[in-house]
Records
---
Amino acid sequence: MVVKMKTEKQIKEWEKRVRRVVPYTPGEQPRRQDVIKLNTNECPYPPSPLVERLAAEFRAETLRLYPDPDASELVQGIAGYLGVDEEQVFVGVGSDDVLAMAFLTFFNSPKPILFPDITYSFYDVWADLFRIPYRRPKLDGAFRLVKEDYLKENGGIVIANPNAPTGTEEAPELIEEIVARNQDSMVIIDEAYVDFGARSALPLVKRYENVLVVQTFSKSRAMAGMRVGFAVGSRKAIGYLKDVKFSFNSYTLNAPSIAWGAASLRDEAYFRETVGRIVATRERTKGELARLGFAFPDPRTNFIFASHKTIPARELFCALKEEGIYVRYFDRPRIDDYLRITIGTDEQMDRVISFLDGYIKKRGM
Ligand code: PMP
C-alpha cells in the first residue's frame, strides 16, 4: 500500500486544535554540586528543625492513603498564624499553582487584565494559556508602578509586591487605593518576598472582597522543594477558588507537604532568625556591591537587582557562571543590563564579592 506522506510543513488537523503556549522558563537547576546557586531565590538555610524531625520520622507506609483534600492541618496553621478565618485560606502546590488557579477563577472578562511590563514572567504565560487578554503598563524609570495606569477599565489586576525581579516595594497606601478604586475587579497581590522586610496587603482582606493576597513557603520558610503556597481573601473569593480547584484536582498537596508545612509554622523563632540572617547579609552585600560600582533599586527581597556602571550584565553573568556562581540574567528590554543575585550565606556572598572585585580590577587594566 502506498501511503501519501504529507510534507513536514503541513499542520495536521489535530495540531490546529492544540492549546499552544510558550512556556515559562524557570532558573537553571544545575546538576553540579559545587555551584554557588544564587539564581532562583531559594533560601540558603535549611527548613525548621521541626520539619527535619518529621522528615526523619516519615513512614512510606502512610503514602497508601490519599492526602486530606482540604489540607486542614495546614489551612488551620496558616489561619491561626495570620489571625484570619480558615474559610479565608486557600492552599496550593507552591504559589505558582495558587496564582494559576486564581487567574483561571477570577480573570474571565473580555477586558484586559493589567500587570507591569517588568514583573514575574509567569503572569503573561498563564494569561496566554487561559486566553485572558492583558495589557502591561510600563513601570517608571525607577521601576515603580504608575498608579494612574491601574485606575483604567480592566478585567483584573496582578501586582507582585515586592516586585520581581526588581526587588522594589510599593507603599500599602498605593496598593489600597488600587484595590479600593477597582471594586469591580479582582486584584491579586503576589507577596512571594514580603517576609524580607516589606509591608503586607493582608489587612486589606478584612475590608475588601476583591483582593487576594498570595504568599509562599518557598523563600522565607526554605521549603521550595515541598511546593507549598497559599492565598488569603474574602470567604466568598476563597469559596470560588476552591470550587475551581475541586473541579480540577482534589488532592493537590501531598501528605508530607501538609504536615511539614504546618510544622514550619509552629517554629516562629526559627523563621524570624532565618529571615533576620538573610536580611543582614543582604544589607552587607548592598554596601559591597555599591563599592564595586553597582547600582540597584532598594531591595525588600532575598535578592538584589543590580547593574554595573561600566561592565555589561551579560558579560558578568557569563564570567560568574564560568566561576561556578549562578545568578539570573533576563535578556529582555529595559532589564538586560541587570543581574538578579539571590542572597546566599555570608560565605557565599563573600565569594561573589571577591570574584567580582578581582574581575572588575583585572578588566579595568
Ligand atoms: N511569585 C513570584 C514573584 C516569584 O518570584 C515566584 C518564584 N519563582 C513565585 C511567585 C512562585 O513561587 P513558588 O511557586 O515556589 O511559591
Note: The longest strand covers residues 211-216.
---
Amino acid sequence: MSKEIKGFSKLSKKEKINWLVSSYFKDDSHAENILKQYWNSNESLQNLHDEFSENSISNYYLPFSIAPNFLINDKKFTIPMTIEESSVVAAAGKAAKFWMKHGGFKAKVINDEKIGQVHFFYHGNKKTIVEYFDFVKPILFKKTESITKKMKSRGGGITDISLIDKSSQLAGYFQLFATFKTVDAMGANFINSCLEEFANIFKNSTQLYEAEKLNKEEIEVVMSILSNYVPNCLVKTEVSCNVQDINSLEPNTTDFANKIIQAINIANLDIHRAVTHNKGIMNGIDAVVIATGNDFRAIEAGAHAYASRKGTYQSLSNAYIKNNNFYFELTLPMAIGTVGGVTNLHPLVKLALKILENPNSKELMKIIASVGLAQNFGALRSLVTSGIQKGHMKMHLINLLNKYDITQEEKKLATTYFKKRTVSSSSVENFIQNLR
Ligand code: MEV
C-alpha cells in the first residue's frame, strides 16, 4: 500500500489503523495490538479523548504523579505532575520538604496582561494612518462588544490598542498592538477572535473616515494572532532561610549557598549552561502545566524568550545572600488558565485542579512557578554536591531493568544489589547477564 493517502481524515479509526499497519507494519503483527491496548474500554471516555485532536488512533500515556509537601503562601499543596523523566518528581518533593521547614514559597503575580497583534502593511502617508487609527480605535472597542461582553462581565476584556510603526525595520510594516485581561482563561481563543475582528474593522472602516485620504486597499493585513511572549504576565516566587540553615543541608560541601549562587552566575554568562539550567526549571513547570491541561509549548516559548530579554540568554532564577539570609527566586511569564481549553473536559485535568483545591489562574501561576523553583533548587543541589547522576540513575534503575523484561523477583535482587553501587546502562546489563 502507498504511504501517501488522500482523504485520510474522513476514514474511520479502524480504517486509519488498517492503512497505517499495511503501509508501515506489514511484518509486525504487534503494531495494531500496541495501539489497541491503550484504548479505554469506557467508550465515552475514549471518544472524549479522540476528539481532543484529529486523526487520533490511540492514547499516549504519561505518568500522572504527585509531589506532596509544598508550602506556598502559607498553604499546603500536593502537586500533580505529568512527566516521563525519572527523578524529577522525587527531586521536587525533596526540595519542597526542605523549604516547608523554612517558611515555604512566597509567590506573587506581578501582572497578568496578555498581548495580541494585527500585523499589516501600509505604504502611504504616515500621518494619515496615525490619524485613521485614532479615529478607528473607539470603533474597534465598540464593534467587538459582542465578543468581549462575557469576558468583561468576569472582569477582563481589551485593555488597550495602540498603533506601532515598525516601518523603519521593514518597509511599510505596522501593528495594531492590543493588550488584554483574560481572568481565569488562558484566553487564546478570545484574543484571536478579537484580533481577527480588529483586522476586519480596521480594513473596512476607511469609508467612515475621510474617504479621499485613505483607501482600504492601502491596508494589507498579513495576520492576526496572540503573542506567546507576555513579559507583563509575570509571576515571581521566592524562598529564603538563613545561610547556616542552607549550608547545614549539605555539610560535606563547603559553602553550599555560595555554590548555588555561582551556579547561577555561570548560567548568566554562558548560554550552554543557561539553557540546561532553565530546562531543569521547565521540568517542574511543564509537568504541572501539562497535568493542569495548559499549553506547555506556549509557556516554554514565552519563558525562553523572557530569559533572553536583556539581549543574552540567561538564568530565569536568581540567588543572593543579604543580611546573612540566602534568597532563591524565580520570575517568569506564565499565561495559563483554569477554565477553557481541556481544563473543563479532561477528567484527569479536572482531578489535578481539584487536588490543587481548584485554584484560579493567578493562584495556579504561583503554584507552577514555585514548582519550577523547587525543581531548580533540587537540580542545583545535586549538581554542586554529589553530581546529578547518583540520584538520577538510582531513580532510573527501574527503567533500565525494564528493558530486560525483568521479573518482580529479579527487580528486588537488583534494587538490593544497586543500593550501594553505581547505576549505569552497562552495570545493569552486567548484573542481568550474571543473574541469568
Ligand atoms: C535534567 O532533566 C535537568 C538538569 O540538567 C537541570 C540542570 O542541569 O540544572 C539536571
Note: DSSP finds 16 helices and ten strands in the chain.
